[in-house]
Design a protein that fits this description.
By secondary structure, the protein is mainly β. Helix content is 9%, strand content 64%. An eight-stranded antiparallel barrel has the order 1-2-3-4-5-6-7-8. A hairpin with a 2-residue loop joins strand 3 and strand 4. The N and C termini lie far apart (45 Å).
């Protein structure tokens, strides 16, 4: 079988599978999700302290079968300085497509990608240059746990990069709740 034939079969199978409801995803088409996150810099910068940092994110999701797409906002502290109260946070808007790979009962495993734009925000204005808009991209995965018909828990991890004045890479672990609307 030639490549275009195989591709057509694969796309047909995915469209059939995506029509089935997934037990652990929200049974409603629209949902809101809020998460707390722990952020780890994946490379050490000698000018900044590389410690584990905290952050948060919120997103609005649209679910259709095994697929869902979210649009949201993430803010995480990424830099701090020794002996100085100044901190720098990453503030970005993002789009996150998600695909449930497998599910069983009230648990589902997913893979996700993320594309965003944002900037670095200083805790004390005037102490550092305003960040220019930067591109952020990455991917990851996680587990969804259905708690009831409208409520689900999300445990996920991702690796992402930020390109711009302070280009860097990060690993993120998050835990959150989603509420179907």
């Amino acid at each position: 079988m030639r490549f275009p034939g195989r591709l057509a079969i694969l796309l047909s199978a995915l469209s059939v599978l995506s029509g089935r409801p997934v037990a652990a995803q929200s049974l409603q088409k629209f949902s809101l999700q809020a998460s707390g996150a722990t952020l780890f810099a994946t490379s050490k910068d000698p000018g900044y302290e590389s410690k584990t940092r905290l952050g948060f994110e919120g997103q609005f999701r649209y679910t259709f079968g095994r697929f869902s797409v979210g649009a949201g906002y993430q803010r995480s502290t990424v830099f701090s300085f020794t002996g100085n109260p100044l901190t720098v946070a990453l503030s970005l808007a993002f789009v996150e497509p998600r695909y449930v790979v497998t599910s069983g009962g009230s648990v589902a495993a997913y893979v996700a990608g993320r594309l965003g734009v944002g900037k670095l925000i200083c805790s004390q204005s005037g102490n550092c240059a305003s960040g220019k808009t930067s591109l952020s991209y990455g991917g990851g995965g996680g587990l969804l746990f259905r708690i009831n018909r409208r409520l689900s828990a999300d445990l996920g991890a991702q690796y992402f990069a930020v390109n711009g004045n302070f280009s860097s890479n990060y690993a993120l672990i998050r835990a959150g709740l989603g509420v179907g609307l």
